[in-house]
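Build the 3D complex.
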Amino acid sequence: MIQIDISKCTGCRRCETACAFFHTGRINDHLARIKVTHFYETGIDGPVACVQCRQRFCLNCPVKALTIGPFGAVIVSPTICQLCGACEKACPIGAIELFDGFVYVCDLCGGNPKCVQACTEGAITYQPETIEQASLEDIKKQTGKMNPGQKRHFYLNQLGAELRRKWSKKHA
Amino acid sequence: MLEYGYGSRILRLDLTSRRYRIESLDPAWIKDVIGGRPANTKRLTEEINPHCDPLGPDNMLIFGVGPLTGSLLPASAYYTVTAKSPLTGILGDSAAGGQFAAEMKLTGFDQIIITGKADKLLYLMVTDTGVDFVECSQLAGKNIVQTTTAIRAEQNDYAVQVAAIGPAGENLVHFACVVSSGNRVNGRTGMGAVMGSKNLKALALRGRKSLLAADTLAFLDEVKKIEQKILQHNEYQKRYRMGTTMLMKDLNGIGILPTKHFQQGVCEYVDEISGQKLAATYKVKNKACFNCNLHCSRYYVVDSHEAEGPEFETLCSFTSRLGNNDLVFALEMNEYLNQMGLDSISTAEVIGWIIECREKGLLSPDDLDGLKIDWGQTDKIRQAVEMIAFRRGIGDRMADGATKLSQGFSKEAQKLVMQVKGLDIICGDPRGIKAYGLTYAIASRGADHLRAEPYFELTERFDEAKKRFGTEKAADRLAEEGKAALVTYSEKIALLCDALTMCKNIGLCMDILNLESTAVLLKAGTGIDYSPQYLQEIMHRAVIRDFELNKKFGLQHDQDTLPQRFQKEPLTEGPTKGSTVNIKKMVDEYHQLHQW
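Done.
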């Protein structure tokens, strides 16, 4: 899975740009499977991609278009998928999103993630073996009615709160 | 129709009638300017009434990006805002990085042209499909981050990018800024005041269009080469750690760090206010513009103050330039100026001029409402900045800029304003960097280094200087020989950076961009053929166009000069001791090279 350390993120969006480009040949954040949010009020920046959560909320697909592939990545069958948006609604952190007739979710680039290569800061690393699956149960309760962008914002804001405590301690 | 690189559309908005029109970009029109700043200037030249009031509805406010903005090219993150300047009355423009420009590309608009004046405070929500004129009286008086956050929340979209003005822009301070990505500033020439005069609080963007290169693999190939050049550059580590604030000690080391309003070039307490100190003490992380692999910006937290930055200009402006050794105060000011939307250089020039005039007895105790302020008095400086931002008391006159403020005083006092063509000089004493001195003198927006950024003269690459400019002296900072040739070359690369668009710290200071790689990038990115020779020609024409436009605004060549201090008073200490600038000789040579 893709692991992210937001304390190292500078908000450059090279991960997002590389993701969109190597999957589609184009650049547009909607085409990326890892998306960066910037908090201009707190200095926090960070990308969000599928964390392969314990609950796998997105597998609630009514037509069973989603399955779990090798290395734990979510695989969407474009022939079965009816673009109903159930998976997008179900993901608590906005890591799966529909755009222009397609479902965008991290596919680990077949085991050689481009976002990891693009990041010069070491903020993104790749672990083929998932050691501990994160639980998103608590976040799910709080982001239920949000759109994917709002969910990413909420999730990163939580991760950022801890980092900011560290920053203020440094200069106490 | 341009299929690659360009969005190929122009958005025209009239705030008076609240109407907009989408036009297609004429391929023949854009060919000889490429995009960005030169395209904005061409638009202004063709369409503006040169006699219009800069703060009236007829002034045009143009946001422009280039064909490679927001692409895989590292640091392709810049946009330029252009209008007739309220500070100088001539061509005004200012560029900024961050995330705004990349989002503008996704709207598919290469230029957004704003005219008229709204009857109520508005913000514009521009998407690829159209424009909403959103009334926002609740945002009046709000700072940049408050405005940005409120608009994102209202739009239910945290990817919306916002370029806003703060209270200074609303109050028509003549050197107010436009600020995007929270702390990314279009600082110079008062573009924020033009926006404020139109009752426009913010321009918000969100796009769904995507960018495609004409020859994806060739583009990627050239981008990889450029990325490697950046990563392997000998200044990478230093710039990564400190960004432009590395210049505090670098400039002090060669005796040209503006201290006490350019009275000295050496600052004895530089270690207390240096980039090194800042990086070691208050920096908490690096920040970056869109798709950049240098990440030279920084975020700091200290007490109740936090912000992105500061860059060298702001740091120097509020430390040595004003005789202040308190770094934390400068960090507080960086946050305050960004959030109010005030240009740090022009703000510090007003205050520095007042302090020096008081010191020299050129202001009587009753002048300026009895404002008493001396070197390094942080409380007084803070008060003065607030008075400017809100045009309070004597701040109302200070907010017109140092040049206009000085006109009510003696000739001797007027000579002490460190300005060219009404724009306040940046933090670098030209007595020790002659090509920069020439650039301040000839720059079409007034005293400014970014029109040519001849950083080459500081690199001591003597063999390369001989090869490129015919004399080793071009790489000798104290020499005047060869500097006209250097500036004539580097003004073209600076323009190319502004046209593509690309960051000048990388493209020019780190010497990454040249005519050959630009031609390759443009061919692969847009599909249009540009030879290096043709690029030279059109950039030369763009320089002439700036001049022709300024002539319409009433400017003459005799204003291509420097303040007398730099021509007549040698610095008294340090490695630049004894040096002055023979500006006329360099300017004449420069004019000859342009056949003026």
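Chain A has five helices and eight strands.
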